[in-house]
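Late entry, evening session. Most of the bench is empty. Finally got around to the prediction I had been postponing all week. Sequence below, unchanged from the version circulated by S.P.
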Amino acid sequence: MVMTVDELETALSIPVPEDDRLLLDDSRRLTGPGLLWKHYGANLDVFVEEFDKSEIAKVWSQEARKVLDAIGWQAEKSISRIFENGLNLAITAPIDQLYSAIFVAQIAWHYTAHRLLETEADSLEGFVGELLPVMREEANPELLALQKLADEKAIDFLSDDDDVSLGHGTGSITCPVREIPPLDEIDWSALHNLPVALITGTNGKSTSVRLSAAIGEAAGIVSGTTSTDYVKIGDDILDRGDYSGPGGARMLLRDKRLELAFLEVARGGILRRGLPLRQAQAALVTNIANDHLGQYGVNTVEALADAKFAVARTLATDGTLVLNADDPLVVNNGLQAERKVCWFSLDPENPQIRASKAAGQVCCWLEGGMITFFDGNTAEAILAAADAPVTMGGAAKFNIRNVMGALCLAKALGLKDEAIIAGLTAFESKPEDNPGRCNEFMAKGARVFVDFAHNPHSVEAVSDALAHLPSKRKFLLLGHAGDRSDQEIHDLTLAALAFKPDEIVIVELEEYLRGRELGEVSDLIEKACLEAGFDASAITKADSPPKGTEVIIEKLQEGDLALLLVLDERDKVFELLEAAA
């Protein structure tokens, strides 16, 4: 009887020295391309004080080699990455041995830590004796043979604890990992990879995914998406929730109806497990900004950029990397890319655009209000930026970039201009098209926008864009999650004040207190507003986003403008605004 996943996870307990100077924080499987490399394996995160991290990396390499050789994994290798307060340490492993790989990595750390601390380690022979039976239980030679043949045929191979699939969508088959058919009985001629694009970055991921899918649908192709909101194919939502990780991608890519896929890829999924596929046709990096730092050894925006660029490791040899040439961190990483790059920029004189045109390489830019695409030979104005509704007549620069990124992806996937124009001009800032992203309502003759922006970069972009719309009075609703630092809450508030509101409603997010007391975040927001020069009489507090929305609706008059930064209870807010139309 093969061990269950729960049994495999707890089969061994590898002791490590108890010393706060060398702290093993996390151990996890790597199931696809990620921050460190493109291999399957296992990763450890360790925090370090006092020790030379370069010396730790050297000792890790030596001890990992000894353990790998002792269990017969001579072909496998190790790697290390140093960050500000620790290291990521990893080994490669066969795909059928990833739980065992965690134990292998932990044993290697056992010897690394004892050697650095100059203390006595346990017997390697004893560890190997305990580990080999676990490895035999986990071993799945049929899965390995299937992976090898799929790689030879360049057919994407997606595996998890329960199932394995070959190809994508209409060209895929899926079977249980322990019930793999004989390889000569598989109809390989029926298997193929679909056009798949990955979309990552700090902001604009969900909007870019949905814009791209709208183009696919306009082309008459059954298109699917994963995002932080749901997995969707055509009009069918397969499941709701945050599916920006590998689980959502596998769910979508195994659906036999699928013909074209756009996958939102978030930092967390990349760092926890890696990316799920290796034969994507295109990938988009929208931008890189300070958000969600301090996890998995990613403490700086430069490291975050490295993590986001893991999408380049998923591309097929003829794949295209679509990059925002207006973002310095994206440019720095993009210039090192080993795949074809399509740059886009709001500035026709951007250095990357000029270099691409001179070299006869594809690129895209905004000139005279027109989004122009260069195919390497000819430049063609595709559409006016103002004709895409999400740009708010061209005022929302961040959404012009999202439109350009989607256009470049569509070009990389071979979609025609007619479909690109139809998709981009039909896609609107409404909940059914792009829930939570600059959704516009009319309430009592006033324009009201609802947005899910939750980091300083996105909040400021939305606030600044809407600040330029004509209005009699402006109302702002905001609240922040409690796991933000005091400084982050201050910065988020100042970013929102770029909207230049006349009145502010601060709301409690009771489900997002995350360790803070009720009222604590609201007081910090109020303090930031007062320090920025707002009069206390212009500030109101409410118990929740719906309650705050009611306060604003009550005050609205024709010609007013409101921005509601809603992080919770969005559907209730939508209902209130629809009732006030």
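Two things to note before I forget:
Residues 5-138 form one domain.
The chain has four domains: 5-138, 141-190, 196-245+256-426, 439-579.
Will write this up properly tomorrow.
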